[in-house]
Amino acid sequence: MELLVASAIGILTAGGLYLLLRLRTFPVILGISLLTYAVNVFLFASGRLTIGAPPILRDDITRYADPLPQALVLTAIVISFGMTAVVVMIGLGAYLGSDDDHVDDQPEADADTSEGRP
Amino acid sequence: MSLFFIVALPFFGALLPGLMNPAGRSACAGVTFTVSLAAFIGLLTNLPTVLAGEVVMARVDWMPVLGLNFTLMLDGLGFFFALLILGIGLLIIAYARHYLSRDDNMGQFFTYLLLFQGAMVGIVLSDNILLLLIFWELTSLSSFLLIGYWKHLPEGRQGARMALTVTGMGGLAMIGGMLILGQIVGSYDLSVILQNRELIQADPLYVPALILILLGCFTKSAQFPFHFWLPHAMAAPTPVSAYLHSATMVKAGIFLMARMWPVLSGTTEWFVIVTTAGLITMVLGAIIALFKHDLKALLAFSTVSHLGLITMLLGTGTAFGAMAAMFHILNHATFKAALFMSAGIVDHETHTRDIRRLGGLRTLMPITFVIVVLAALSMAGIPLLNGFLSKEMMLEEATHTVLFDVPWLVPALATFGSVFSAAYCFRLIGHTFFGPVRDDYPSKPHDPGFGLWGPPALLVVPVVAIGVAPFLAEPFVKMVTASVLGGEAEVPKAYFKIWHGLVPALFLSVVAVVGGFVLLAIFNPALRLWDRAPRPEAKIIFEALVEAVAGLARRLILPLHNGAFSRYAAIGSVVIVVLGFHAWSTGTVGPATRVMQDVTPVSVAGWAMLVAATIGMVFLHRNRFLSLILIGIVGLMVSIGFVFFSAPDLAMTQFTVEVVTIILLLLALNFLPNHTPVESTVLRRVRDAAIALFGGLATFGLAYHYLLRDAVTGPISEFHLANSYKGGGGTNVVNVILVDFRGFDTYGEIIVLGIAALLIYALTETLLGGPVRARLLNRTPDVARAGDAHPMMMVVLTRVIMPVVLMVGFYIFLRGHNEPGGGFIAGLIVSIGVVMQYMASGFSWASARLRYPYHGVIGAGVLIAGLTGIGSWFVGKPFLTSDFTYVRIPPFNEFELATAALFDLGVFLAVVGAVMLSLESFSRLARRAHVPDSEHPMDIDPSRDDDPVPGTPAAQGGL
């Protein structure tokens, strides 16, 4: 089970990083979202994986999942929505203002030849 | 009045002028005056204690671990400076009211002025040197704002930048010096430091500390070679020049030298550095001042010169020197502030400050003339005016000072400087006020109203009074001197007298005055000589220096930091992975302590879906709608994963956030292109893929590794589990952590969320207010729109669902403390319910039924949460301490009432407001010009008679 979660984190990170390195705003935003999932799951998993023991106190039960990472990740999820919304808005404003949704500054004169170079 | 109030009054008062701005200029100045007056009176209430030789203290421990305490101290020296700052401040405020024109934003000016005043009072009352440093930097910042107050003038901006750079660098050096000093003594409290003269002067770090502190003092007080910023700061409005650059800020360096005098002075290093710097500054400033044609530049360089004089006196290290310095500070503050204000009057009336264009003002502006003559003659050192007394004390001290083993050096240079000093004073009077009346003034001059000449006239009163009756000032100056000396030396017995007999100082005074007249007589040839002599221009040197440093920084940074986001992302990812690998390969790795848990087919299926969706996104991301669906699948699988791993709260949050995120991205795609074109080369894609794979592999390794090992120490969650019910009154530990144990975090988080939403709103407003608006209104969608954007079935369905959604939200909210749920999740659910109304019935229909603006909802949420936290203060508990009780109201069962629920309500409201404000802002962009807003929820409604608007698709661009 640990292998599944760890590999999921790895794959989410890899996908997120690849999209993060794209040249247009929308894929970059999606990349950030994927990275957010990866980070949230990673932080959540720092409480180690516990199955079938939610941290809701019950009499005569002593085994609970670690509640602290859960609380931290819960707010992180909500905040990441706020952050995504701001980033989308900035990207949108840039696109509407300049009719261009590249994340990097484009060279003025020979935009066609130099595009794609790092 | 407590010292805290005296310091705090200007800072809190700084809020008022801005608020009073709409009420008019007099109200604005009036409130500022009242604040200063209150602080001034507060200071005077401490006068009897200070006169009795006692030190008033006030202390609050701020960060005792760092040695940073909010300790204030009022002794003679502090009282003297605070009196100057607040007293002259009052006059300046009255003067500025009449000086500033209608176009100037007066609220802003007085806000800056009060901030500056507070910072200055803070400096002179601080007992803790770290606290003093904070106020010191605050004066640099607030004076930057004041100097650059006329933002439209390039000289103002440049002067402000130069002043900030020079004094900021000096402040930086001083931080180092103060920290060394604190380390030597073992305390940052001035009262302790001042008791340890031997310890400090014997320490090997004494010289570095001395030099660093002096750097701070010299930059602030414009001592050579840092004198050049002061004249450039004269681009400020005249009240600022009069206040900052004659009476207060430039004296801060002097103040600090006086404050540190008992422990730093008396050594050869102190004597040589301080006396030399002071002497050079004094002579250089006086020479340059004579040849300046701008009234304010002349006064600026004369200020530089006089500051040099005071510095030199402090440098001598004798008690008499210190007393002369204190006396001259008092005298200089009075006549120089009066002169600056008079220069402002001349500028205000004639619209020029160029001496060459003036002259003959004596008969046109008699009142100003009298003020200037008295103040300038005092500056020149003419008897029966206060400048004469302290200047003669200076010359007296100079005759006893031997620098570099040359006995005549100091007296000769001091007299030489005094000659020039007398000359520029005579020039100021002669070339401005005497001579024939001209007919080419830029504006016809006449004396201004009392508001402008009253404050300098008031300052001239002590100039004459002390000059005629020196004994008036004597007890006060001696008291101040006593507190400067701090018991390290006896206060000199010398009496303040006009006539001392035929002492050498008198002859030197006579030489200075006569020499000044001679110099003025030969002024024209001297000016030609001066104009022909090559001189280094400080501004050019300074700018070249700054440009050189900036160029070096550019060369270092630009290759890495060229503004391309993808480059930062790539470099950042690689660096993080490499650092992680370094840590991994050099550290030790313990054996696995946990057993891998068994895999179930269901979890494999979920994992497979998540992986497939992620990989699909990478390959299909060019189709943006498709990638939205795929990211939805990823989010869903993550939520299910949370359920599986015992985190029901997380699952609910993730799921609801997923819904609003997708709606948000859909709204954005309304405007953005639907397709990402192929642009990057294959090579680049391979490079990116490699970086991504490395990053992924690294996180996989890290996660896998620690999932199989226990934490190094027991997690603090044990405490939360044990106390959740007992202390927090709830069985859902996650919720109790959010609203109780870590309530302060949550409070900060809802504020951040609210700010994010407001930011989105502000950006939308900017877009809609700018040129983008026309394009938005006239755009045509790139894909065909549905004929019926608001179908009846959806309208009816969402309307029916709404109460159910609200009830579910209410239920989730209430159960939150004990079962999965809570404010965050309930807020998201209710938001989804409201968003559905927008989607189904259209933007205008929904917003017409909006009763409370979302800004208000956010604000109410933050306020409720904050007030709940504050409530615990009333029972003497720290912020956000929660309480709960069980009540029973028949016929209900016993139930729990917790303050945490009130806090959670705040969270709920903030979340609803933030989510809705974000989404609403996006949909406001979507309105288009050729699609009329409809007040009806449905475009096609059989119960309505009217037809849909012909010729357009019945659809609207709404949500």
Summarize the structure.
Chain A is mostly helical. Helix content of chain A is 64%, strand content 0%.
Describe what you observe in this structure:
The complex is a heterodimer of chains A (118) and B (959). By secondary structure, chain A is mainly α. Chain A has helices at residues 2-20, 25-45, 67-98, 111-114. Helices cover 64% and strands 0% of the residues of chain A. The radius of gyration of chain A is 20 Å and the shape is elongated. Chain B has 41 helices and four strands. In chain B, the strands form two sheets. Chain B has a two-stranded antiparallel sheet. A two-stranded antiparallel sheet of chain B has the order 3-4. In chain B, helix 5 packs across helix 24 (474-485) and helix 35 packs antiparallel against helix 40 (854-871). The radius of gyration of chain B is 37 Å and the shape is elongated. Chains A and B meet through helix 1, helix 2 and helix 3 of A and helix 28, helix 29, helix 30, helix 31 and helix 32 of B.
Which key terms come to mind for this protein?
heterodimer; A: 118 residues; mainly alpha; Helix Hairpins; 4 helices; elongated; disordered C terminus; B: 959 residues; two-stranded antiparallel sheet; two-stranded antiparallel ribbon; 41 helices; 4 strands
Low-confidence stretches of chain A: 110-118
Number of helices of chain A: 4
Second-tier CATH architecture of chain A: Orthogonal Bundle
Mean pLDDT of chain B: 84
CATH level 3 topology of chain A? Helix Hairpins
What is the number of strand segments of chain A? 0
Span from first to last CA of chain A? Answer: 39 Å
- Overall mean pLDDT of chain A stands at 85
Structural class of chain B: mainly alpha
Tally of individual helices of chain B: 41
Largest sheet of chain A: none
Greatest chain-chain interface?
A-B, 89 and 120 residues
The helical percent of chain B reads 55-70%
Cα Rg of chain B: 37 Å
Write down the overall geometry of chain A. Answer: elongated
Uncertain segments of chain B of ≥5 residues (pLDDT<50)?
950-959
The percent range for strand residues of chain A is under 5%
CATH class of chain A: Mainly Alpha
Structural class of chain A: mainly alpha
